[in-house]
Design brief:
The complex is a heterodimer. Chain A is mainly alpha-helical. Chain A has helices at about 5-40, 45-70, 90-100, 110-120, 125-135, 145-155, 160-170, 175-185, 195-225, 230-235, 240-270, 275-280, 290-300, 305-330, 330-335. The longest helix of chain A is centred in the first third of the chain and has 36 residues, at about 5-40. Chain A folds into 2 domains: about 5-70, no CATH class; about 115-285, MetI-like fold (Orthogonal Bundle). Chain B is of the alpha/beta class. Chain B folds into 2 domains: about 30-140 and about 290-345, 3-Layer(aba) Sandwich (D-Maltodextrin-Binding Protein, domain 2); about 140-285 and about 365-405, Periplasmic binding protein-like II (D-Maltodextrin-Binding Protein, domain 2). Chain B has helices at about 1-25, 45-60, 75-85, 100-105, 160-170, 185-190, 210-225, 235-245, 255-265, 305-315, 315-325, 335, 340-345, 345-355, 365-380, 385-405, and strands spanning about 30-40, 65-70, 90-95, 125, 130, 135-140, 140-145, 175, 245-255, 270, 285-295, 330, 360. In chain B, a hairpin with a 2-residue loop joins strand 4 (about 125) and strand 5. Chain B is globular, with a radius of gyration of 24 Å. The chains are: A mainly alpha, B alpha/beta. The interface between A and B is large, with 43 and 51 residues.
Chain lengths: ~325, ~400
């Protein structure tokens, strides 16, 4: 990269950055003028500090969300690209289509949904292996603990897109390491990219590799906060390892595990990078809800329909989260 | 506090016009920046060539800066649609003809009849009585390539082709490599088996036909019965195998000739895909080309700069340079009579293949057809689906896909 490129890039963004600065200044000054001078309110400074974040969130989150709802009631696609019609009927059509017609070229909504649940169920593997690794790392007297921890955390530290693309190359039939390993032990190679079932397994493998470190870190934090006294007391009563795990570790880990599993579920359910990149051949049999949504919107340019589709996914995830929060009390600490 | 705020405000109001002036620079004879999105990549040196053209052009016209941005073909289409909607579209596109369908349907590009004299160029994208693109290079067609180390003469029929490929497949060496799962590589054979993806009306898909069935059976047999292709091969694998001399023959497009010339030197052989023995017909690869598209929202003050750049790239001199450097056939008719083509066996082979090619449909419906063929083709080539099942499914998917577009 040469300095000319850097300068050009800076030149291109400088105008926008400047106007944002000016805009925020104006807002701040008016809040200050109104709050401090006119209303004589003591909390003016609070308002001034919070406003930029509110404006930013409003522009980047609230506005798109409202636009999405509006779009769901339109017939926007390539034929109606510049001047789409908005009506209740269009909206009903869009929502009906999600359940009655293929969401992509041949797959319908329900198989994609079931596949997404199957895909999401891997969080169980993340959590149990993460916990297992954390317990190994937490053993008193383990040498080189920090080295192990650093190595184990690497997958999580790497940008997801890079890991996804690296794994995709590794699933190459000719040159990828899983097939080379298989060939070495005398087994035939697997068509990770072209075969529907194996492609799905490839996606899960990659995501498990990515998901375990997060759960491990969280679990390790939780384990370290459990006082050793509990275990000492249990030892005196002659409790077995399993009993200690069941009656001390698990209950005390619950406040830590429940929210992280919930996060894991949401992230996995909504994971875009792994299913999108590993599915190089665009097999419809490997699509989960969010990737199907992306293809419907950007490969097939079904903007109105996709907005409705997205709202349905949102509703699903929202209700799932509500049930989970109620069931586990995951947010208890926050609401108390 | 108060003083600081007032000072900042004053500073802002003073600096604003300066910044705004620097940002727009819109006068027709003031400095103009043209953002160009191109599908050309670095691997065959085409992006570097585009960048050098932009630099040369800027050197000749001090007031005009061409900013080149490379995007992968599909990303270019998607991003352009999104950018056009957001009002931040680029000023010029350098891409393939099949984008014309979606772009004209959505009203995102403008006709070029007023920009150029269309009669000076090879056949361009004509829809609804208007020309929608300026040809940069023509062809973009697939052809048969071979490594002279293994193949002295290209096979004439598919029977010869299979026999030759079989005799060359040994150890880690393949007789043939190509992008197995991509419909673009299926299209020539479909033509060779007397088929076409659309009925006469040009928009009704005809994929559940004996021709498609025979095509799939033929491609399947190359891998499963004759074992002459790699088990799984995408574009990059085929490309690498051929460059490393591990594939004797390759099916690839004219855009790749430059790269292979560099890798194989005099060992490169190019010509028509062999006649299908069962029908006696030559495979008909899709021909299209690389084109300039002009966005509908191009600001008026940039029109003349865009026009000048188009004229520069399609001038006889630059077109001949493209032919010499990248081995692509020119879009300008005058440059097609270049002795470079007559005297170069590779270019002659490429032209011979283009003669039996068929223009690629540019209608929007083609999008649904590509997306209908691809997964089924992959499934057949993975051995998880029979050709009979595949043709039914692809027809159904294409019909659904087209219905969804509306």
């Amino acid at each position: 990269m040469n300095s000319q490129v850097v300068l050009t890039a800076l030149g291109q963004v400088s105008g926008t950055v400047f106007w944002m600065f000016v805009g925020f200044m104006l807002i701040e000054v008016s809040i200050w003028a109104v709050g401090n001078k006119v209303l004589k309110n003591k909390n003016t400074l609070v308002a001034m500090l919070v406003t930029p974040a509110f404006v930013g969130l409003g522009l980047l989150l609230v506005f798109p969300l409202i636009y999405e709802v509006v779009l769901a009631f339109s017939n926007m696609n390539l034929y109606h690209f510049r001047n789409p019609e908005f009506s209740l009927l269009n909206g009903l059509d869009n929502f009906k289509r999600v359940f009655t017609k293929p969401v992509l070229q041949s797959t319908t909504f329900v198989p994609v949904l079931l596949r997404t649940f199957l895909w999401t169920s891997q969080v169980f593997i993340h959590a149990s292996f993460g916990m297992l690794l954390a317990m190994l790392l937490n053993r008193p007297g383990l040498k080189f603990k920090n080295v192990y921890r650093a190595i184990l955390i690497l997958p999580w530290a790497m940008p997801q897109v890079i890991s996804a693309l690296t794994w995709r190359s590794e699933f190459n039939f000719e040159y990828g390491f899983p097939n080379i390993l298989l060939n070495r032990i005398g087994l035939p190679g697997i068509q990770w990219k072209a075969d529907a079932v194996w492609n799905f397994i490839a996606m899960v493998l990659t995501n498990v590799w990515l998901g375990i470190p997060f759960m491990m870190v969280i679990s390790l934090g939780g384990l370290q906060s459990i006082s050793a006294e509990f275990y000492e007391a249990a030892d005196m009563d002659g409790a077995s390892g399993w009993t200690k795990f069941q009656n001390i570790t698990l209950p005390l880990m619950k406040p830590v595990l429940a929210p992280s599993v919930m996060l894991g579920i949401i992230w996995t359910f909504n994971n875009f990078n792994i299913p999108y990149f590993i599915n190089e051949m665009k097999l419809e049999s490997s699509e989960i809800l969010v990737t199907a949504l992306f293809r419907a919107a950007f490969n097939f340019s079904q903007y109105g329909f996709s907005a409705a589709f997205a709202l349905i996914i949102f509703a699903l995830l929202f209700s799932m989260t509500l049930v989970y929060v109620k069931w586990t009390g995951a947010l208890k600490g926050v609401t108390d | 506090m108060k003083k600081v705020l007032v000072a900042l405000l004053v500073l802002a109001s003073v600096a604003a016009p300066l910044i705004a002036g620097g940002q727009q620079g819109g006068e027709s004879d003031g400095p103009v920046t043209i953002s160009l999105w191109t599908k050309e990549g670095e691997s065959d040196g085409a992006l570097q060539w585009v960048q050098s053209l932009a630099a040369d052009f800027t050197a000749q016209h001090e007031n005009i800066t061409i900013e080149v941005l490379n995007k992968e073909v599909e990303a270019l289409r998607e991003d352009f649609q999104t950018a056009a909607l957001a009002g931040t579209a680029p000023d010029l596109l350098w891409s393939v003809s099949d984008h014309a369908g979606p772009f004209t349907t959505a009203g995102l590009i403008q006709p070029v009849d007023d920009f150029i004299d269309t009669s000076k160029y090879v056949e361009s994208v004509v829809m609804n009585g208007s020309t929608w693109a300026v040809p940069i290079a023509s062809g973009n067609h697939l052809m048969l390539m071979a490594n002279k180390k293994y193949v002295s003469e290209l096979p004439k029929t598919t029977d010869e082709f299979i026999a030759l490929a079989k005799s060359l497949t040994k150890g880690d060496m393949y007789g043939l490599a190509y992008n197995l799962g991509e419909a673009f590589w299926l299209a020539p054979w479909l033509g060779g088996f007397n088929g076409s993806v659309f009925a006469e009306d040009g928009v009704t898909p005809t994929l559940d036909t004996p021709a498609m069935l025979n095509t799939l059976k033929f491609l399947r047999s190359l891998k499963f019965d004759h074992g002459v292709t790699p088990v799984e091969s995408d574009y990059a694998v085929a490309d690498t195998l051929f460059k490393e001399g591990k594939a004797a023959m390759l099916i690839n497009g004219d855009w790749s000739i430059g790269g292979y010339k560099e890798a194989l030197g005099d060992d490169l052989l190019i010509g028509r895909l062999p006649k299908v023995s069962a029908t006696g017909k030559y495979p008909a690869p899709y021909t299209s080309g690389v084109y300039f598209f002009i966005p509908a929202d191009l600001p008026a003050e940039k029109e003349s700069a865009v026009k000048m750049f188009i004229e520069y790239v399609t001038s006889e001199e630059v077109q001949s340079e493209m032919l010499a450097n990248l081995s692509r056939l020119p879009g300008l008719k005058a440059a097609l009579s270049s002795p470079l083509i007559e005297n170069d066996p590779l270019m002659k082979g490429s032209v011979a293949q283009m003669e039996v090619g068929t223009p690629m449909p540019t209608v929007l419906e083609m999008r649904a057809v590509w997306d209908a063929i691809n997964p089924e083709l992959s499934a057949v080539m993975a051995g998880s689906e029979t050709p009979e099942e595949a043709v039914k499914k692809m027809q159904e998917a294409a019909v659904n896909g087209i219905a969804n577009l509306k």
